[in-house]
Amino acid sequence: MMSNIVEYNNGHIFSQLGAELVFTQNAQGEYLSFYWKSDIYNQSNLDQKTFQPLVKETYLERIRRVIKRKIPEQCNYVFCHEQFCLPFELIISPIILSDGAVESVLVMGRSLDNASHLSIESTSALPTNPDPYQKLLTNIARKIRRTLDLETIGQQTVDSIGEALKASRCLLLMPTNSNSEILQVKAEYCEPKYKSLLAMQIKYSDHEEMKEAIMSRNAVIFNSSHCADCDALSTLLVPTFYQQELNGIICLHQCDRPRSWNEAEQELVQELADQVGTAMAHATIYQKLEIANKEAKEASRLKSEFLASTSHELRTPLNGILGFLKLVLDDMADDKEEEREFIDQAYNSALHLLNLINDILDIAKIEAGKMEFELTSISWNQICDEIQKFAHSQAEKKNLYFHIELPSTYDEILLYADYQRLLQVMLNLVGNSLKFTQEGGIEIKGEIVHKQIEINDVILPGVLKISVEDTGIGVALDKQERLFETFYQVDGSRTKAYGGTGLGLAISKRLVEAMGGKISFYSMGEFLGTTVTFTMPLAQLPLLKTENQDKISE
Fold first, then answer.
1. Domain boundaries in the chain?
2. Shared fold status for 4-129 and 134-289
3. Closest by alpha carbon to 283, among 409, 467, 156?
């Protein structure tokens, strides 16, 4: 029995190709030419409406992909004709015009004999060979969605792409911080014979190709190295974004030969970059939430400890006030002199209680942004006089030396600060030194630094660097970073032993910074003394003397 042959348009040419099924189609799936040789099916009413893929949308997506990539694909597809479904093995090739454009495809196929006569209901299990790159993309995307660990996402990404595309090296570069132009290699796939670039940093603004990739948000290819340490002959760069913000660059190197990265490879990395960018952003957010949660728990713990300690500190002077007043009221004093002593003790306890309450109120005001400052020209010499009066007698009682060294100037040193707040800082720091020093003493030094700064739109000529040094109990090196944190205490037992809320340094830091200065703490270790140094803006530069600094000492 002779085969039935259906041809239209240029079908007679296709019959010479030796394929069972040959046709051309545009991106919309319209047949431009058609040839089909079959001895089974009635083809008298065959047209492009009766011969259609079973799943049309999936088939058209493949046609459009071939047109876009300009790369042939091989697959299995089921076509429907009348009441039957016909499985075919197909090769879909782009028809490239003289100007390089592609608007249609040539499809050649043969029927699969073992499934050549099926009803529509029996086609659900028929295989269609998926696009290998699409399958790879799906596999990689599935992997990175399984984790919220940033390092795992990065390593899985570079390993999967590097192995799949047979690249010499695949890198994931990420900004070192949210506002940085510096990119660092955070994850790397690298063949053993090539140099590792892990942890290398690159300033992307120095590299035109990187800037182009970031600005265009598309893949960029070039046949040269993008840094001095790279040995790549061909490079493919694809940026990753999340909500319009750059969060990485996927970088592929081919080091053994120049390589032309085809459109399918570019599209694979581009599609993957979109998913990786989102996955990295989610992982980063999760990490920040974890850190914030830990910090919140730690803050809650510290506040609980602080409240426990402070409640004890508040009760101690309050009990003293009540106790001494009760003695006076009950006429327990032997004479007027002892009665006066009881009242003096009650008064001192009340002052101590007031200072504790003021510390708590101050830190609350600072954290709520309610602390007010009156920045004006004030005398550092006058501040030093006040500190001298405050500390002299206390130092004498403990057999400690107390020195204040002023910079050697002809005129008064004028600072741009709030007098009461600066005095409060100095009282806190000197008070701490007196409290925690049992032998030796305390020394305050000042140094003029010619460094122009701007505070509240006011240009100032320099700063005074102030140091408060003591020979006290010191602080262990591993605990010094947290000393300025609110509610943090190096050792709760110290607060009980020496008294106080432990808020002095936290308050001082915030007051100094609010007045435009910076503060730091240093100790060589436990029992090796401490030095607290801070800067305060100068209202004007004093006229310096050449001789040694004047010294106020007791």
1. 4-129, 134-289, 372-553
2. yes
3. 156
Residue range 372-553 forms a domain whose CATH class is alpha beta
d(C-alpha 68, C-alpha 266), whole Å: 12
- Superfamily the domain 4-129 falls into: PAS domain (3.30.450.20)
Beta carbons of 33 and 39 less than 8 angstroms apart: no
CATH topology of domain 134-289: Beta-Lactamase (3.30.450)
Tokens coding 513: 């910074």
Tell me the sheet residues that pair with 241.
246
Q: Give the span between the Cα atoms of 115 and 120, in whole angstroms.
A: 12
User: Concatenated DSSP letters for 140-155?
Assistant: HHHHHHT---HHHHHH
- Return the percent helix, strand and coil in the chain, to nearest 5: 40, 25, 30
* Bridge partners (DSSP) listed for residue 551: 405
> Which pLDDT tens digit goes with each residue over 58-117?
889 889 988 988 888 888 888 877 666 778 888 899 999 988 899 999 999 888 754 444
User: What predicted TM-score, i.e. pTM, was given to this entire model?
Assistant: 0.46
| Residue 500, both tokens | 């106080």
Pairing mode, if any, of strands 376-379 and 414-417?
A: antiparallel
